[in-house]
UniProtKB/TrEMBL annotation:
Transmembrane spans: 12-31, 43-62, 85-111, 185-202, 214-235, 241-261
Superkingdom of source: Bacteria
Upper lineage: Bacteria, Bacillati, Bacillota, Bacilli, Bacillales
Keyword Hydrolase set for record: yes
Record-linked InterPro entries: CAAX_protease, Rce1/LyrA-like_dom
Pfam families linked: Rce1-like
A biological-process GO annotation: CAAX-box protein maturation
Domain CAAX prenyl protease 2/Lysostaphin resistance protein A-like: 132-218
Name of the protein: CPBP family intramembrane metalloprotease
This protein's UniProt keywords: Hydrolase, Membrane, Metalloprotease, Protease, Transmembrane, Transmembrane helix
Organism from which the protein derives: Exobacillus caeni
GO molecular function: endopeptidase activity; metallopeptidase activity
Length: 279
């Protein structure tokens, strides 16, 4: 059977998003000129709007390619080992933290002022209770759902039309990490691989969505913890702390690398959608 994901064109998503951004910008400027714009509301609304236009494109593209969304999400043929997948997700969260501290340690040797400024910066977060709840719903529920369908569901299958499934997992995870555009690239890349493995093993995208949500929930909790501006007083203090974190996190890194190597050596990988269609 020909891979139906060949019919999906990602350049159309880019055009769709550009058009969506222009419309949002026009509306935002209009509200600003009218005196109704609120910075916190505008930022939150943009996040929701961003995922909404992505989801609309997903629904439209799947329908045009005659791909069922429920079939793409799939269903497990047997019981899901939630403890295993949650445990691996928590391990990956620790590796992601390790990767950020390791990056900051080595970068601080070359660009100390930039690293100090970054550590001492206070991330802008919603100030109201309603704003915090909406932000958490966005990053814990909406983002994982849309991103998993887009990257593990559509992109992974589209790449596998021309490449091996394992190569497709790596490339789709690289794209996933790159598009987040922050210092967590290594952790997001490894996390993307892990979520793809979950989908391939279980044939159930809900597992990847749930684990993605768990990851984002932990990140969200840290995001909204009270900050302490100027907590890192000196370069030596920063380097000492990041070095200790780097050494302490090595066992988790080794454990995850061993898991990835063992998993990639398996020969029974198959495209989830094809398996689901044949079931």
């Amino acid at each position: 059977m020909e891979n139906p994901f060949r019919k999906i064109k990602f350049w159309k998503l880019i055009l769709w998003m550009v058009a969506g951004f222009i419309l949002f910008a026009i509306a935002d400027i209009g509200l600003d000129l009218a005196g109704f714009r609120h910075e916190e509301v505008s930022s939150t609304a943009f996040s929701i709007y961003f995922y909404l236009i992505n989801f609309l494109w997903i629904v439209y593209s799947l329908k045009k390619a005659d791909i069922g969304l429920s079939e793409l999400i799939g269903r497990s043929s047997g019981p899901v080992s939630w403890k295993k997948y949650a445990g691996l997700t928590l391990m990956q969260v620790l590796v992601s933290i390790w990767a950020i501290f390791t990056l900051f340690y080595f970068v601080s040797l070359v660009f100390p002022d930039w690293v100090l400024d970054t550590f001492n910066a206070v991330e802008e977060t919603p100030e109201t209770f309603e704003g915090i709840i909406i932000e958490l719903v966005t990053i814990v529920l909406i983002a994982p759902f849309v991103e998993e369908i887009l990257f593990r569901g559509i992109l992974l299958h589209k790449l596998s039309a021309k490449l091996s499934l394992k190569t497709s997992v790596v490339i789709s995870s690289l794209i996933f990490a790159a598009l987040h555009m922050n210092e967590g690239f290594v952790g997001q890349f490894m996390g993307g691989i892990l979520l793809a493995i979950f989908y391939i093993e279980t044939k159930n995208l809900w597992v990847s969505i749930a684990c993605h949500s768990l990851n984002n929930l932990i990140a969200g909790i840290f995001m909204f913890l009270p900050g302490d501006p100027g907590a890192v007083a000196s370069l030596s203090e920063l380097q000492q702390g990041t070095f200790i974190a780097m050494i302490a996190g090595l066992p988790f890194l080794v454990g995850m690398v061993v898991y990835y190597v063992k998993t990639f050596r398996k020969q029974n990988w198959d495209i989830p959608y094809k398996v689901e269609k044949a079931a």
